[in-house]
Amino acid sequence: MTGPMAPRDLLAWYLDAGVDEAIGDRPVNRYAAVARPAPVAEPPPAPDPAPPLPAAARAPSGPVQTAYDLAAAAASVEALGRALESFDDCPLKKTATNLVFCDGSETARLIMIGEAPGAEEDRQGCPFVGPSGQLLDRMLASVGLDRTQVLISNTVFWRPPGNRTPTTAEIAACLPFVERLIELVDPAFLVALGGAAAKTLLARNESVGKLRGKWFPYSTPRLPRPVQATATYHPAYLLRSPAQKRAVWRDLLAIKKKMTGDEPEA
Ligand code: URA
Hints:
Layout lengths: L6 H10 L13 H4 L29 H11 L3 H9 L6 H4 L7 E2 L5 E5 L4 H6 L6 H12 L7 E5 L13 H18 L3 E5 L1 H8 L5 H4 L4 E3 L8 E6 L2 H6 L4 H17 L5
Parallel strand pairs: 2-3, 2-4, 4-6
Antiparallel strand pairs: 1-3, 5-6
Helix pairs in contact: 3-8
The structure holds uracil.
The site of uracil has 13 residues, from helix 7.
């Protein structure tokens, strides 16, 4: 057996495992924290079980149903943000510092959905404010757009630890809020930024490279008409692969042209 790890090696090991933030100042002994109830000598006789409810009368349960109920009741973007504050069933909330909901204009004709907040977003409680957000702002500016004309959000509303990809369950728990946000903003256009958002919102499994430049109808029962949806590369990918910036610039030009062409009459 090897001896205890040097503190520096242990920290490096934590970082490799995705643990890059201290949540509390003191370690928690979770074994000690579980208080076991004293054993009971003789359990009281169980009451007769109630007859099972018919299927239709059974209350739906689970995080996704809770999320749908909370989201459906929100009549404004502000109310949806408050509903999210009260939603405790996404495990990401336990490790995040702040809720990261949305930024931009609630009456925007264009909504952009990324994957998940990163470290800076978690600190500030605002989407796309870190390095990829700064690139996104420059990309928008290159086609004459800014955050007063766009609403920006993510597929999940809390930062996954170590910036890992959100799990299917985490995305499913947040999806009712994303869908309701789209309904409340009721934009003409939706852009999925990166593969995770494209897969979640366009329900397509092709790569972003295959999806970009194509338009798909995005509908929900409460949208008055389908939103025209497309995908492009995520700004974080562009930071790693700057050669693709040209492709995204072309995508943004096409989106801007479509927005201008489809402008509602004054
Ligand atoms: N990446 C995302 O997908 N969203 C953010 O808000 C920041 C980085």
